[in-house]
Amino acid sequence: MVTLEKGAGERESPSSPTLDLDDIQATVLRYRPEPYFGTHVLLRVDDVQGGREFLRRLSPHIDSAAGWWNAGDAWLGVGISYAGLEALGLPDGSLQSFPEAFRAGMAARAEQLRDLGENASGNWDFPFGTGHVHIGVTAFSDTAAKWRRTVAVAREQAIGFSGVTIIHMQDFGAQPGSLNPFGYKDGIGQPAIEGSGVDPLPGQGRAIKAGEFILGYPGETGFAYPMPQPDMLGRNGTYVGFRKYQSRVGTFNRFLQANAGTPEERELLAAKLVGRWRSGAPLTLAPGADDPLLGEDSQRNNDFDYSTDARGRQVPLGCHMRRMNPRNARLAQLTDVNLHRIIRRGTTYGAPYDPDALSEEEDEVPRGVYFLFISAKAMATLEFLQGEWINDGNFAGVGDERDPMVGLQPDGAVFSIPQAPVRRRIHGIDTFNVLRGGEYLFMPSLSALKWIASLS
Ligand code: HEM
């Protein structure tokens, strides 16, 4: 019997896992703890032998997904970019077996990702897009003490020999109430995964075939996605879209003030942009007023669909959450929504949300979110979401409107809020979260990590 802890919801499940949890990295399935503390460490491989030695030292400390439902703990995960796999001297045949988008790298996929204008790689923070990010190690923890110990373990493996250099470290986490930089509770909506050993939470929908998220298993079409070769390199691995956002809190607060007269109206507008109140309570279940207890309750806070809200009068058709998971909403462009689900590990960094931060300078105070978007076809999933569901609105019947939270907004962008008798069109939508970097990473299984480390 399995009981999920905080963050994933408290529940029991009779299912036995059918996935090879001992070989899959914990980060793929384990939910972010609550509260959470952590660090992203980015490294460059300076020579082949040194890089392999680092992986040899690190791999015993990378946690498996066995018992992933015990959310409260500390663990390390690792991903490797294509440039990293080259620097580690993978055989040519293996390198060529990776998908083209992964080989090109995130910066080169700007057109497909719509990472243009202020989101373009020319504006990214070091070391993103330089070709020097070879290995990314992330430490997650539920206490500050365990976090420090876990990061120290990761660092120790890189110290004392030449071969790898730490080129960037970023701490994250532990906002009061685990709120994101705009003050919203996040990390709620996640796909349930077949064979992972835990039944879906109420409203989570049916479990999605594991092959959508982990290589080597059948996906929603009944077939497994192609794996990097040899099979033992690909199986139980997955891909990660790693993205750094800077949250422009001053711009966001000024937008709320300009378009809503009272604090209550501002909260409602903030809820309409996302589809949930900042407490996490979904607008579908709490359309008129916030319900913080509902927001906290993982048995209830995801238990809804859009069948009674076809016109978007409760949850706007173009809001962030309805775009990112339209559930059973009728779409203008037919697609199977279960082919576009993604696992998210959002990690908030910087100062907590400040509702009184209004100046332009506040936009540049370092704070935002590093995301790990995980899927067995992460590049295709992310590129689809960015291109079709975030930076366009036709699929949802809202024309050229873009996702108000994460879209790259043109001048004069608007956001429609359906209501009777006439819809409200809100002006002044800006690019509230600016992309400041990103990399495509391959997250190998534990056995594949050892295989890479032992290449000669
Ligand atoms: C800094 C940028 C972003 C912010 C501030 C943000 C914020 C949020 C918030 C507040 C929620 C609702 C709570 C929850 O379900 O966790 C949410 C849900 C979600 N977001 Fe984002 N998000 C960001 C970027 C993205 C991007 C780039 C993607 C996809 C590529 C994405 C995909 C999703 C998904 C799939 C959901 C869950 C929808 C559901 O299952 O109903 N988000 N996000």
Automatic annotation (TrEMBL):
- The segments labelled Disordered in the record are 288-309
The record's section on PROSITE patterns has: DYP_PEROXIDASE (PS51404)
The UniProt entry, under InterPro entries, shows: Dimeric_a/b-barrel, Dyp_peroxidase
Provide any one GO MF term from the record.
Answer: heme binding
Q: Please indicate if the UniProt record lists Signal as a keyword.
A: no
The entry's keywords = Iron, Metal-binding, Oxidoreductase, Peroxidase, Plasmid
SUPFAM superfamilies found in the cross-reference section:
Dimeric alpha+beta barrel
Biased composition, class Basic and acidic residues, residue ranges? 297-309
- The superkingdom listed in its UniProt entry is Bacteria
Question: GO CC: one term?
Answer: cytosol
Tell me the cofactors it needs: heme b
UniProt cross-references to PANTHER family, sorted A to Z: BLR4509 PROTEIN, DEFERROCHELATASE/PEROXIDASE
What is the designated name of this protein? Peroxidase
Source organism per UniProt: Microvirga ossetica
